Fold this sequence. Notes:
20% of the residues lie in helices and 39% in strands. By secondary structure, it is of the alpha+beta class. The chain has one domain. Strands 3-2-5-6-7-1-4 form a 7-stranded antiparallel sheet. The radius of gyration is 15 Å and the shape is globular. The two termini are 25 Å apart.
Amino acid sequence: MLSILYTTQRPTITGWRYFWAKTVVGFNSRVHCASCLVGQYHRDIGPKMQVNTPIPVDIPENGIFYICGVASPYSWANNFHLALRVKPGVRCSLPTYNGDTVTADGAEQIPILPDDAAQLFPTRDRHFLTCRNFQFGVSIASTLSKARRASHG
Length: 153
């Protein structure tokens, strides 16, 4: 089972305008930001989430999970992105801009490849091509399509 741990010295999560997580099952190339990653939001991961306590996430092995934080005050460089593939026995951690850490127990980090979006969607504007959600969606779209076809027999 995947679990997510937000570690901080503060009593609550701070420094985020938005903080969310989704189980990703598809990609919508017509939009960017959170909407391009098709899937269910995880209700226990957000700006009011428990800190310093593991949060269980029920996703099957090889499932895709994405965590995103938009920094407040806004700075593109301070935003947080952690793309994960569920894999039992694996752990990864990523620091946030404000000194906190997000740890995924039971998942491996998936790299976000910015060049794929620019190559496959060269006419899109910078809002699409600099959006890491969109970049990630582009890079895993074919994987998600194959998984959906396989699950539907």
